[in-house]
Amino acid sequence: MPELSILDLVRIREGSDAKTAFDHARDLAAHAEDWGYRRFWVAEHHNMPGIASPATAVVIGHIAAGTRTIRVGAGGVMLPNHAPYVIAEQFGTLARLFPGRIDLGLGRAPGTDQMTVRALRRSIENSDNFPQDVLELQHYFTPAEEGQRLQAVPAAGTEVPLWILGSSTFGAQLAAELGLPYGFASHFAPDMLGAALDIYRGRFKPSQQLDRPHAMVGVNIVAAASDAEARRLATTQQMSFTDMFRGTRGLSRPPIDDIESYWSPMEKAQAQRMLARSIIGSAETVQAGLAALIAETQADELMIVSDIFDHEARLRSFEIIAEVAGAIPATAVAA
């Protein structure tokens, strides 16, 4: 059975605020720790009123301070937005504060629109330098050599583990070449999942960080007491994707009874394509969906998104997921 981890979007809900979103993320991480989840990640998104985690390192510090053992990290930092040196300083600081618990996932996309890229004082062409920037960043986490004049203090020697994240085969090739763990964003871009995993595993070169491939697969899961209730809770995420297509990103919305009244046929088709890997339903439905996904992908780890409006319902969703995953027989997920 693969490890289970959580990707939290730190959603700001209608009728609430960013502080509540931060505290709900921290509370979820504390519960997830008790339920056996391996890691808890947040992502860098800019200029999105409903997502409170653009200052990713700061949010990670808040969550790590409220937990004891679960790994906390970025899923991910969009490296083209930053100088690698600054990211090394930030995550080196986190690694000193929370030894052995910090992960750094790296993405090549800007995670925002071109207007915001300009506000960040970066260039869209920075993504072309992504492989070189990853290597530079990795170097800053290695022990400083005698006489080394440029150090990322206090990062040197922390050996913060890096991950390559992506939604295409480019990231798979880079992760394989550098011998790094790889996470595929099939929770919103499922089309190339199989091809990316094949490339990553087929071309992997062992490294100092990793001696064999480690593939993480992103998946949306909404679990509830019944299939009908889970489908209702899932409308929050479906509306969010619809709003994205409309260019009207906003706060997280409460679920509705009839999603068909919200989206057009074209919007429905677009959303369903991006959410095609979603597992939505009761404990029994979720268990069957998980077993099928694991058997198909042979993932070493699942990074789970459960984008639910109500905090208590979201906690219960992740609790159900942990319970049913632990009960899946090994024979049900064998290749």
Automatic annotation (TrEMBL):
Task: Give every Luciferase-like domain span.
Answer: 4-298
Superkingdom of origin organism:
Bacteria
Q: Name one Pfam family in it.
A: Bac_luciferase
Which positions are tagged coiled coil? none
- InterPro entries in the record: Bact_Lucif_Oxidored, CmoO-like, Luciferase-like_dom, Luciferase-like_sf
Recorded hits in NCBIfam families, A to Z, give:
oxido_grp_1
Protein family: To bacterial alkanal monooxygenase alpha and beta chains.
PANTHER family referenced in this protein's UniProt entry, alphabetically? LUCIFERASE-LIKE MONOOXYGENASE
Name of this chain's protein: LLM class flavin-dependent oxidoreductase
The organism that produces this protein has a lineage beginning with:
Bacteria, Pseudomonadati, Pseudomonadota, Alphaproteobacteria, Sphingomonadales
